[in-house]
Structure formats: C-alpha cells, structure tokens
C-alpha cells in the first residue's frame, strides 16, 4: 500500500470529492483524503493524503495557500464569482490610478475580517449556507478574521479605465480566506461593485504548481508502475517544524507515545517532529494541561 502525499493539479469542472473518488480507483486504496475543498470552477494545487499520510490532512488543510485571481470591477454577483447572477452593476466609465489600487491592496493586507458568502459550505444552525441560498434565504452569518500575508498586483498598468475594469492579483493567505469575498472587499474600498472573475491556487503549504500531476497523468504513471516518482513522503509536509532524531535513550518512550519532559523548541514552535532513519515517528506538542511536559499529537507506525 502506498503512503504519502500526492500533489494533485485539480482541473476545472471537478469537485474535490470527484478527485478522491477517481484516485481511489487509480491507487486501488480507500485510504485517500483531500486537504480542503476547491470549488468546481477553480483549478489548482490540491494535496491528496494517501495511507498513513491521512493523519496529516488537518495540517495541510490548515497550511497557508497562494492564489492568482482576476478581479472584475463593475458588477457584483450572488456567488461573488463569475458563476452567479448579477446583483448590482455600475456601468459608468471608471478611472482608477495604479496608486489608488495599490493603496487599496495595502489596506487589505494583514489581518482582515470577512463574512462568509451565502454560497459557501460554512454551517449555520447545522445547515450549509449554500442550502439556505438555494432556497432564496439570506441569513446572518458570523464574521471571522483571516490573514492576508501578501496581496500583489501582477500587471504594470498605470491607469485602469472603462465601464468594466479587471486586473490580476496574487494572494498569499491563511486558511479560511474567501478570495471571492476579498474581491468584493477590494471593490468596496474602490467604491464599486466587484466580483472574482477567475481563480487558480498555485500553492498549498509546501506544495506548488510545478510539483503537481493531473489525474490523467497519474493514470499513466500508475500504469507504468512509477507512483513512487510522484507520491511524496509524509516528511515533505512537515518541513516547517523542527526535526529531531530519535536516539537510544528516548527510542522506547517516543515509539510508545509516552508523555515526556517538554523539549525547549516547543517554546517557539507549536509542534516538533521526531524521526528515525529519515522517517517521521511522532509529532509532539505542549501538553495541554500539564506544565513542563509534552505529548504526542500524531504517531506514525512503521510501514513496509
């Protein structure tokens, strides 16, 4: 059985669940999980966890993401992207200087508050928001803070003019960020209705576009018996955390998942990784209730 992380390039028109369904057939295992949904209309990096790596799915879901989007100024839609029906339209001729636009992007960099769009999978009172939206209901939903690490303008125009203005941006952000909603917020700052015209996820955590394969490419690789070339080891998802070798003194304690005196690195990092022969054995965190101690959060039994 394969264990590891497959950096998949999800193509437009597929749901994340569609990808998992197809991959289970190609990889001939049920133990396959994705790391956070990408809307059907969005293409991009979707790390897939296989075998023991499914234990890391939450880490990959929580990792920062990088997107490239085209923002359209002039119309807003029900879904905040190009798929929805037009809600409002400003057909006036607009003139926006590069300086104005850069200032707006700067204003929306850092910690910002977002209200999830009605067409989203966020649950309120046990139901997903899009279920209310499909019935024509608009309900109150809680705002949440997200982090925009960088918001970069990708063209070199000096002035943007026209009844509809579009421009490309690159966004590095925390989990839970809605780029559709960010597009609307950019429009609000400029004083116009807006929506997200297109979106591509170019990175998820440590995994980038150039690491990825499509489902059709993977099928060919599997038929050639070369899956090891594209399925990355579990350790690839843990490179952001300090790593320490298991030694003779602590081998039994760590492989048995015992509570231990806290490692000094946990003062600065929320997790540390213990490895043996280059393979992850355990991930330790500060003990939540016992000062000065640490406990395993994830264990990785030896596999063939």
TrEMBL record:
What processes in GO biological process is this protein linked to? mRNA pseudouridine synthesis; tRNA pseudouridine synthesis
Active-site residue list:
39 (nucleophile)
Superkingdom of the organism of origin: Bacteria
Keyword tRNA processing listed? The answer is yes
Instruction: Provide the alphabetized UniProt keywords.
Output: Isomerase, tRNA processing
Name the SUPFAM superfamilies on file. Answer: Pseudouridine synthase
Give the enzyme's main class according to its UniProt record, as a single word: isomerase
Record domain tRNA pseudouridylate synthase B C-terminal: where: 180-238
Query: In the Enzyme Commission scheme, what number(s) does this protein have?
Result: 5.4.99.25
A Pfam family found in this protein is: TruB_C_2
Q: Tell me what reaction this enzyme catalyses.
A: uridine(55) in tRNA = pseudouridine(55) in tRNA
Query: Which stretches make up the Pseudouridine synthase II N-terminal domain?
Result: 24-179
Task: Give GO terms: molecular function aspect only.
Answer: RNA binding; tRNA pseudouridine(55) synthase activity
InterPro entries in the record: PsdUridine_synth_cat_dom_sf, PsdUridine_synth_N, tRNA_psdUridine_synth_TruB, TruB_C
Its biological purpose:
Responsible for synthesis of pseudouridine from uracil-55 in the psi GC loop of transfer RNAs.
Spell out the PANTHER family in the cross-references.
PSEUDOURIDYLATE SYNTHASE TRUB1 (PTHR13767:SF2), TRNA-PSEUDOURIDINE SYNTHASE (PTHR13767)
The entry's family comment says: Belongs to the pseudouridine synthase TruB family. Type 1 subfamily.
Q: What is this protein called?
A: tRNA pseudouridine synthase B
